[in-house]
Amino acid sequence: MDLPLICDTVMKLYLYADNAKRIHYTIESSHGHKLCDEIRDEILKFVDDLAEQSFGYIGKPSWTDFKDLSKLEIYEVDDLAKLCEHVKDLVEALQKSFADNEDDDASGIISLMDDFKGSMDKMKFLTTFDKVSNA
Questions:
Q1: What is the mean pLDDT of the chain?
Q2: Neighbours of 75 (CB within 10 A)
Q3: 3-class SS at 13?
Q4: Residue 61 phi/psi, 5° resolution?
Q5: What distances in angstroms separate CA 28 from CA 84, 99, 110, 126, 132, one per listed residue?
Q6: By CB atoms within 10 Å of each CB, which of 18, 49, 64, 66 scores lowest?
């Protein structure tokens, strides 16, 4: 398993959670405000679970295993649906790395990622209601 990939993914997920909060402050609708916070909370809950399970599985990282945040790149967006899609894509890349490892012990982590991707799909769907209400 690729420790740098896990560390980068964890930190990028935190950046995406912050991006959701940035959208929160700029969005007009009450539905959008609430949804931004729900998406942010979902990402933060997932990233903590992911980190705990992954590092429990492969071993704790050192401080130097994490890149400087300024060296990490994410797709900064002002659209919640796109944010959900980018987060899901990021998790899929990590999931593929776990799946390629072909280790049954990682099945719980893979399942956690499947559940989260489903949650992001749901959140992405919920963003469409905001667009309908503003039409």
A1: 89
A2: 14
A3: helix
A4: -80, 165
A5: 19, 41, 36, 16, 14
A6: 64
- Side-chain-side CA neighbours of 103 within 13 Å: the count stands at 12
What's the confidence (pLDDT) of residue 131?
Answer: 58
Q: For 82-108, what is each residue's pLDDT tens digit?
A: 999 999 999 999 999 888 876 667 888
Average pLDDT over residues 68-86: 90
Distances (CA, A) of 23 to 4, 16, 35, 63, 133: 29, 11, 10, 30, 18
The residue count of the chain comes to 135
| Single-letter code of the amino acid located at 134 | N
Nearest to 10 by CA among 69, 50, 53, 57: 50
Q: Which of 25, 34, 55, 20 is nearest to 126 (CA)?
A: 34
| Terminal-to-terminal C-alpha distance of the chain | 47
Q: What is the distance between the alpha carbons of residues 3 and 111, in angstroms, rounded to a whole number?
A: 19
